[in-house]
Design goal:
By secondary structure, the protein is an alpha+beta fold. Helix content is 16%, strand content 42%. The strands form three sheets. A six-stranded mixed beta barrel has the order 1-3-2-6-5-4. The protein has a four-stranded mixed β-sheet with strand order 10-7-9-12, with no helix packed on it. The protein is elongated and about 75 Å long.
Length: 192
């Protein structure tokens, strides 16, 4: 599991005025939600969270809040509507044996015969919503495209799912397909 270390300082005051003061000091107000303990309000900098937020990969945040180490996932993030900078982050603490719902990146595996003869691989879903316990979390899921011919598609039910992970989306949703390009369509039509 990929982890990113993030340092933060606890906030004693919460509310509009306190949050505005945190933002004016170039920090990001954050909340760590936990089912085991009470919620922790803290602040950190954009440099600390950059590698967690601006990546297509799934990573676990290893939060260090005033010396207390906690593993968490990024639950929600808010951006400024004009400036596009981060204005608030919510984290969810990972508690052992307590299931969480997360979105994990989906990658293709293998090489398709349909692509080799000129088809175009189209991936319509890049992340899959799953439910699992923190011990079973994975960085990415895979779907095997090595048997796909022109015009075929694979669905969510075809994803290779490790043990202990439950997919929370409908199994019939298409994930990847091999489109037949116009040149091959027109060549097939000319043969008829």
């Amino acid at each position: 599991m990929n982890t990113i270390a993030i340092n933060g300082n606890k906030r004693n005051e919460v509310g509009k005025k306190a949050t505005k003061a945190v933002r004016s000091s170039n920090s990001i107000p954050c909340v760590l939600y936990s089912s085991a303990k009470e919620n922790i309000h803290f602040h950190t900098t954009e440099a600390e969270v950059r590698n967690l937020v601006f990546t297509p990969e799934f990573k676990v945040a290893e939060l260090n809040i005033d010396g207390v180490q906690v593993n968490a996932i990024l639950k929600d993030i808010q951006f400024h509507p004009v400036k596009d900078n981060i204005i608030h982050i919510d984290f969810l603490q990972l508690v052992e044996k307590h299931p969480v719902i997360v979105e994990i990146p989906l990658k293709t595996k293998g090489s398709s015969p349909g692509v080799k003869i000129g088809g175009k691989l189209m991936q319509s879903i890049r992340k899959v919503k799953v439910k699992t316990v923190p011990e079973k979390l994975v960085n990415e899921l895979f779907i095997d495209i090595s048997s796909m011919e022109l015009g075929q598609s694979l669905r969510i039910k075809d994803i290779i799912i490790p043990e202990g992970i439950e997919v929370m989306q409908n199994g019939s949703i298409p994930v990847v397909s091999i489109e037949v390009p116009r040149a091959l369509k027109s060549a097939a039509a000319a043969e008829k």
